[in-house]
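Audit log entry. Action: structure prediction of a protein-small molecule complex. Ligand: magnesium ion. The ligand was supplied as SMILES and no pocket hint was given, so placement is left entirely to the predictor. Protonation state taken as written. Sequence taken verbatim from the request; no trimming, no tag removal. Recorded inputs:
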Amino acid sequence: MIEFQGVYKTYGSGSHALEDINLHIDDGEFAFIVGASGAGKSTFLKLIRREETPTSGEVIVNNYRLSRLKRKEVPYFRRTMGIVFQDFRLINTMTVFENVAFSMHVIGKRKKEINRRVHYVLQLLDLQGKGNRYPLELSGGEQQRVGLARALVNNPSLIIADEPTGNVDPQMSRDIVEMLTRINEKGTTVLMVTHEHELVHQFDHRVITLEKGHIVADTGRVNRPSTVSLGDMAGERGGVPV
Ligand SMILES: Nc1ncnc2c1ncn2[C@@H]1O[C@H](COP(=O)(O)OP(=O)(O)OP(=O)(O)O)[C@@H](O)[C@H]1O
Ligand SMILES: [Mg+2]
């Protein structure tokens, strides 16, 4: 659950990135955040991840009232979410496998479990056989899928993607959103920033439109009947939702 209560964000330079944002996003929703450059989309995501703090107002994420979160609690809080960056942010000196496995090592998962899970998410994203490559030996679309694999590997309850389709062709953009849609259908909340209106219209998801720091349109929660059978993912993950 994500809630914004009267949130304002003014950066030091005096630019009003967000003004009086009031919004509720339920667990299990898929919401696109759209708007022109400078509208406040990335700022919105940064407030959710506590990379920035509001100038006034309150942000609540998964029952964490972020203004009360202590500095040392922030890393633990962030581990409950997966993030996909537009510029991938892969570690070029580590293989694909190591990039994806890294966040599992950090939280002390055992090697056997890491191997199983990393192989599973790589296969899910059509990256089987690429585990030993280095990021710079992959195409842009493949690198983006490694970024997605890394966001998914710890089975987060929330995935945040800032322009995950920014560097790939229209077919790959569609594939990425389809992949996120399948993950969402298993119960993970997905928030995705995009400027691609064409892409947004191809899916039946909530669309929140920002303009100059204000929400100017919001389709609200979209209730879709579940269309995906559980069979395709359930076996590999040992009963844990993706
Ligand atoms: N660190 C910062 N310091 C000062 N101003 C900032 C900072 N980050 C963003 N801004 C300003 O806040 C406003 C919103 O920026 P934001 O990055 O949220 O926009 P955006 O919608 O993500 O744009 P884009 O589509 O170009 O990524 C802009 O006017 C921007 O210049
Ligand atoms: Mg941005």
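Audit: result stored. The radius of gyration is 18 Å. Residues 11, 13, 15, 17, 35, 37-43, 195 surround adenosine-5'-triphosphate (ligand 1) (CB under 6 Å).
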